[in-house]
Each structure stands twice: as C-alpha cells, then as structure tokens.
C-alpha cells in the first residue's frame, strides 16, 4: 500500500460517503463469509484513497452484523 494517502480531512466528504456506499453494495452483493473477505472488498473499492483509520471504519461499517 502507498504510504502517502490523503487524510480524511483532505478527501471530500461526498467522496468518502460514495466509497462507503459502493463498498456496502459490493459486500451486500457478494455475501462474504469472513471478515477477511469484507476487508478485501473494501480494499479494492477504496483503492488507496483513504487513510488506515478511515479504511478500518469503512470495513467495520459495511461488515455484516452476525449474532
């Protein structure tokens, strides 16, 4: 991964929202069985556009809730 990713403050809020929605749609469509699969889907979706903290937040947000 590239180390000089833009911080959330420099990324537009609309773009972050768009990435989150796209990731959520992809996760929903794929029905991943593991957390690693969700992580891989989000990684492909955001393609180094966000920092690590934002990446983790998107993964947590779009992960299916299991009881």
End-to-end Cα distance, whole Å, is 33 Å
Query: What overall form do the CA principal axes indicate?
Result: globular
Strand content: under 5%
Q: Share of helix among residues?
A: 55-70%
Count of individual beta strands = 0
Account of the protein in words:
- The chain is mainly α.
- It has a domain at 33-67.
- Helices cover 61% and strands 0% of the residues.
- It has helices at residues 13-30, 35-46, 52-62.
Quick overview:
The chain has 67 residues and is an all-alpha fold.
Write the layout of secondary structure elements.
Elements: H1 13-30, H2 35-46, H3 52-62
Helix pairs in contact: 1-2, 1-3, 2-3
Question: Keywords for this structure?
Answer:
about 70 residues, single chain, about 0% strand, 3 helices, mainly alpha
């Amino acid at each position: 991964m590239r180390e000089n990713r833009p911080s959330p403050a420099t990324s537009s809020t609309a773009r972050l929202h768009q990435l989150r929605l796209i990731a959520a749609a992809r996760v929903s469509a794929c029905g991943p069985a593991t957390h690693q699969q969700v992580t891989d889907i989000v990684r492909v979706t955001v393609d180094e556009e966000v920092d690590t903290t934002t990446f983790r937040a998107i993964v947590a947000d779009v992960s299916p809730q299991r009881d």
